[in-house]
Structure prediction request, 253 residues.
Amino acid sequence: MADHGLRVALVTGAARGIGHGIAADLLARGWSVALADIDADEGRRALDALAGTGEAMFVEIDISDEASVVQGIDAVRARFGRLDALVNNAGIADPDNGPLERLSLAEWNRRLGTNLTGAFLMTKHSVPMLRESHGSIVNMASTRAAQSEPNTEAYASSKGALVAFTHATAVSLGPDVRVNAVSPGWIDTRGEAERQQEPLRPIDHAQHAAGRVGRPADVAALVAYLVGDESGFVTGQNFTIDGGISRQMIYAE
Prediction:
């Protein structure tokens, strides 16, 4: 992606957690950022919290609704006139869908409709601007695309499909647009008050080869690399960021 001076990123699910961390990081690096979220109140509070750090806007988007997606992307176009990076971070974060035999089709479809179809809709309607800027897309997958706990079929399936969607779109949209995925492991997205009230245990950190649980800033730094100039030869890839926990062999004793 060429350096055009002004660069614009659209980050979904930016009201809190990893998405908010990505938006804050990109603003600090000189990007203009559109924060998108389905929760308008939280989204505007997130925007207020970033006041003075760079040029930003909030746009309310339900990524599972195509009309909402189109309207939101039109608002970004009207404000900035361009788009250089799309970060498909929004999704239903709770992986537990309950016992498989009691998982309703409606709940299955709700989770896939947000986590997978939402990324498709955002990508579909962002592509025209991203082609013009030779931009980049980052999809937020999960280590659960490759490993699971019980009762997580819908979430794991949506994230596994998102990894496949990543390499498929990278091939279809290249060389104009690069597409990569990031698969976080355990990232502590809680607020400061909650972290102090219920701190993580030493064992929570020790089970990671890196010696600690992840932070939103860890993911944000990787996303910044993937949408930046330095990663111009990187596309169609899935990057695991989990402190090494998925590489550790654990045996019950």
Remarks:
- Residues 8-245 form a domain with the Rossmann fold fold (CATH 3.40.50.720).
